[in-house]
Amino acid sequence: MQGILYVSHGSRIKEATNEAVEFITSVKKLVNIPLQESCFLELAEPNVTEGIDNLVKQGASRISIVPVLLLSAGHYFKDIPEVVNQSKEKYPEITFTYGQPLGVQDQFTTILAERIEETNVPVKADAKILLVGRGSRNPQTKIDIKNIANKLQGQTNIQVDICFLAACEPSFEQGIQSSLSEEHSQIFIVPYLWFTGVLMDFLETKVSDLFEADKEFVLCRQLGDHPAMKNALKERVYESIK
After folding, report:
1. Where do the structural domains in the chain lie, given as residue ranges?
2. CA-to-CA distance for 144 and 50, rounded, in angstroms?
């Protein structure tokens, strides 16, 4: 019997964990497979091992691991496979398959543009977008964020610069400093993050501390529970089975 295990990152913030659980629960309703479980890589329960155990107890003979991740980075290439490999040794009779993160998709760029519109802040002629990625030591992460930035600039006709919250440069702080030194009077800070959590809290705090008489900083919300995100994860579920 086929089982699906959704692996989300996890967060110290209860609101972020709840957001992920609610999102995945809504996706489960779109997937016509009876055995579906959610788990977290860290900071929340159940963990990956417990998630696999739960599926085996319910009779799963095949388990598809579906990473609830935006881009391919360390969690995808290293952390999740390490834990799954331990379960493979524990359950040699179980067939495991491994899905892919959502990756770079044009529909996600459209969501970012919608997040700017949702602020209801009129866009000025000299506006700039600061696209904020999570960051990773994997070089593909920077390539992907640059790709997304190019797509967003083409869709909005607004200049888009990039920065990262960790492991990559320019850092968020460097991105803000560059924005302060430039002539743009309006900067939309657009996070390429799926759920709320520590990083969104960090951005909210930093932006609230920015007081410049001649500049307007506008923080947009995360990708979140947009219907396109749910459909994209559903597609990854079915792809993972194959």
Report:
1. 2-102+226-241, 106-219
2. 32
Q: Which of 198, 74, 223, 78 is nearest to 141 (CA)?
A: 74
pLDDT tens-digit profile of 48-103?
999 999 999 999 999 999 999 999 888 899 999 999 999 999 999 999 999 999 99
Computed on alpha carbons and rounded to an integer, the radius of gyration of the chain in Å comes to 19
**62, β-bridge pairs:** 2, 95
Question: Chain centroid to CA 36: how far?
Answer: 21
| Structure tokens that stand for 173 in this block | 């702080």
Nearest to 76 by CA among 46, 103, 109, 106: 103
The 10s digit of each residue's pLDDT in 106-162 is: 999 999 999 999 999 999 999 999 999 999 999 999 999 999 999 999 999 999 999
How far apart are the C-alpha atoms of 221 and 58, rounded to whole Å?
38
CATH number attached to the domain at 106-219: 3.40.50.1400
pLDDT-derived band at 242, boundaries 50, 70, 90: confident
Contact 2, 241 (CB under 8 A): yes
Determine contact, residues 220/188, Cβ cutoff 8 Å.
yes
Class of domain 2-102+226-241: alpha beta
Cis ω before 46 (30° cut-off from 0): yes
Token digits of residue 87: 């379960």
Give tens-digit pLDDT for 100-119. Answer: 999 999 999 999 999 999 99
Rounded to a whole number of angstroms, the distance between the first and last alpha carbons of the chain is 14
